[in-house]
Structure formats: C-alpha cells, structure tokens
Amino acid sequence: MKGKPVTLVGDEVKVGDRAPEFEVIANDMAPVKGSSYRGKVCVISSVASLDTAVCDMETRRFNEEAARLGSDVVILTISMDLPFAQKRWCGAAGVTRVVTLSDYRDASFGTAFGVLIKDLRLLGRAIFVVDREGTIRYIQFVPEVTNEPDYEAVLNAVRELT
Known about the structure:
This protein is α+β, with helices and mostly antiparallel strands.
C-alpha cells in the first residue's frame, strides 16, 4: 500500500481451486452466499472502499463492461464498506450492473480468498474469475492497492468462459 508491504490474512487461493464458500451482505442487508452465483461466470472484484478514487474508477469501469458481457456473466464488487454506503455510492455513481456486497460483518470473503489486510481490516485489490461450476479460472492480485487492475486481461479470461 503506497509502497509499504501489508499482511494479508486468510487462505491463498489458486487457479483451478474450487472457489471457497463465503457469506457477505447485500445492500438490503440480506446475507448472500458466494455459491448463489453458480451457473454464471462470476467476476469478483475485491476493493478496499468504493469511496476511494481507484476503487470508484474500477467499479465504474466494470459496470460499463457488464453491459457488453451478457446475462451469463455477473460482476460482484466486494468491500468492507457498509451496505448503506454501497447503496448510496451506487445511486450517486449510476452503477446498476455491478452487484456490490459488503464483507464488513465477518470478513468471510476476505479470509476465504486471502485478501483481508490484517492491520487495516480492508480488502486488498484483486480480481477472481469463477466459472459456472464454481472453479477459479483466473486470478489477478494487483500488487499496489493504488493501481487499477489490468482490465483487458480480466475481460479476456471472462470471454474464454462465455
């Protein structure tokens, strides 16, 4: 983070692994399990906070791309932001195609995917592409949390599965 190493908590996942189960909170406060997206190609974008410039840009970009990817693809953005803040942000940003989910309660996603930043209790920037059967097919850990991901690499991974 800004050139300073951080410690990530949780299990490291690898391409070819079954996506670990997790439970996060939707904007309406309902619990959502990761497995509820099986049957679709799922892009999971892990971000620190939608209220930061890079996370804002990333989520807006994926919202634009979602329209071109079709109904067999779902894009999730998961952060530690409270569901109320995510809902407010989506309304203000006009984000309607990305599903924002909160890991604030248990850090279930962060620890299951190994992206929970220990000292900050935020999520590190990473992208996971999970196929229809629940297998991780692509992972991108962004080495500097203040940088955007390689969108084209993510989109190419998604296109290979659709």
